[in-house]
Design goal:
The protein has eleven helices and seven strands. The chain has 280 residues and is an alpha/beta fold. The chain has a seven-stranded parallel sheet with strand order 3-2-1-4-5-6-7, sandwiched between helices. Bound molecules: NADP nicotinamide-adenine-dinucleotide phosphate.
Length: 280
């Protein structure tokens, strides 16, 4: 079983929420952690807190959607630690709004962050892992990658795409000793909702005939948030994947996520559609 101690792990989106909790957990386990996100002040503060010596921690500020930032991230990791054992593809955000109204540029932007940049960074680390004889890639998906909801279909479709991508990648990289898993969080208390609302503020403000449904959507989401887990619930699953010789294709958590996914498997689509329907 791979030991966390000494593993060089890149965690994207580590300035908040699940990524930050993952960086904390991996650092506690003795990994050499490289963290990235756009907010440099947060990365620097986390690095100072977790490893004041700077020997085992590397903050590299950058935008995941920038080709040059992705290159700098990989170059800086190899310059400091000389290898890459694992990549946790966590950076992501949501777009709210009906498909009819969300401008295509916003849809592209969401796919650019959640899918295309994730693929591009993964492409960048694979050659190093292959040369080393193995590695591990953990993608952070979502229950939304199995259950799409009205007014959230843009974001949910990025996570559906990630399901397929992860499965294909797992098969492609298996011969090279690179393990690939998808971790699917349910509701987790993070900055996610604030970020989604900020990214979609204009759409929400100009929702036209869909406006009455936002209230119901918001109320439904708020109710479900009562079940919300903590970021470390997901960090624990990432650690599990990283420390397994043969990680599961999927890790789901916390408990309510398992229930939703079981219901999705069990119930006809028509019933699931009724459960997540718009309420005015
Ligand atoms: N919270 C939930 O309920 C939930 C449920 C299912 C799945 N997820 C997934 O979990 C992952 C983490 O989300 P979270 O809940 O922890 O949200 P969060 O608290 O908003 O954190 C998102 C992280 O992604 C980073 N990020 C966003 N856009 C970026 C970009 N262009 N370049 C670099 N970094 C970027 C943010 O950093 P900067 O803003 O500093 O760049 C931040 O560190 C996401 O993939 C999300 O889809 C979350």
């Amino acid at each position: 079983m791979p030991n966390l101690a000494g593993q060089v792990v890149i965690v994207t989106g580590a300035s908040a929420g699940i990524g930050e909790a993952t960086a904390r957990r991996l650092a506690r386990g003795g990994a050499k952690v490289v963290i990235t996100a756009r907010r440099q002040d947060r990365l620097d503060a986390l690095a100072r807190e977790l490893d004041p010596s700077g020997a085992n921690f590397l903050p590299v500020a950058g935008d995941i959607t920038s080709e040059s930032d992705r290159r700098s991230l990989v170059d800086a990791t190899l310059a400091k630690f000389g290898r890459i054992d694992a990549l946790v593809n966590n950076a992501g955000y949501g777009t709210r709004g009906p498909v009819e109204i969300v401008p295509v540029e916003l849809i592209r932007k969401n796919y650019e962050t959640n899918i295309f940049s994730l693929i591009a960074l993964t492409q960048r680390v694979i050659p190093t892992m292959r040369t080393q004889g193995g590695g591990c890639i953990v993608n952070i998906g979502s229950v939304a990658g199995r259950i799409a909801r009205p007014l959230s279909s843009i974001y949910d479709s990025t996570k559906h795409a990630l399901e397929a991508l992860t499965d294909g990648l797992r098969g492609e990289l298996k011969p090279f000793g690179i393990r690939v898993s998808l971790v699917r969080p349910g509701f987790i208390v993070t900055e996610f909702i604030d970020a989604a609302n900020a990214a979609s503020a204009d759409v929400i403000a100009n929702a036209g005939p869909y406006a009455p449904y936002y209230k119901g959507y918001h109320e439904g989401t708020t109710k479900l948030r009562a079940f919300a887990g903590q970021p470390d619930d997901i960090a624990r699953l990432v650690e599990k994947a990283l420390t397994s010789d043969d990680p599961a294709p999927r890790y789901n958590g916390p408990f309510h996520a398992k229930i939703f996914l079981f219901a999705r498997w069990l119930l006809p689509r028509r019933v699931i559609g009724w459960m997540v329907r718009l309420k005015g």
